[in-house]
Amino acid sequence: MPEQPPYLRVADELRRRIAEHEWEPGDRLPSRTQIGQECGVGENVVRRAQELLISQGVLEGRAGSGTYVAEPRQRVRVVRSSAREQPDKSPFRADMRAVGRNGDWESRTDAKVPAPADIATRLGIAEGDLCVRTSYEFLADGRPVQLSTSWEPYDLTAGTLVVLPEGGPHAGAGVVNRMAAIGITVSHAVEQPEPRQATAEEASLLGIQKAALVTHIRRTYYSDQGRPVETADIVVPAAHCEIVYEIPINR
Length: 251
Description:
This protein is about 25% helix and about 35% strand.
């Protein structure tokens, strides 16, 4: 078995000392020099270990002050389920209501945006075909918990009341309900989650450390005719949220 990288060994040691209450929430950790001497590693190794624990919500860095043990925080539960789609209701608000939080979002829509190659492939259209792109920042009790960038083929909704996802009589109703309003039945969605590090822009919007761990979900909705009608890149911070999938059982 390959030897564990030094920064992971140091991270495990710091995590152990926190679990054994050597340091309590709010306590300032010793300097990187001191920790490095105790663990037999250099300061850069300690820095990588601390950055990992910061991304996991175990530690927090304070500019000009040092690194501290983070206060325990309750993670927001984000449920992925077909049951989320309800007539004339926002799936996100329903999710947040279910866990006793107030859900809201901010959005910006750009119409007639040429589809980049990867989005075109996911939507089954040609690269450069026009799309409606909407960027979202989802909030739970005013705190950012999720980002999403949605793409819909412009020729699918052009000239209808649902061409703008956040405008008109069906604003904020979700993809399934909006498509139903123009006679398109969404039969299923495919989601592909994977872990990665946050970009600088994502970290800034979510209020997390740069390169913190996030779950990136590529979601695509399909009509009952098999056509992709919307695809989105959803970003959820791992330290602040837990993702739960509900799988319906048909009997």
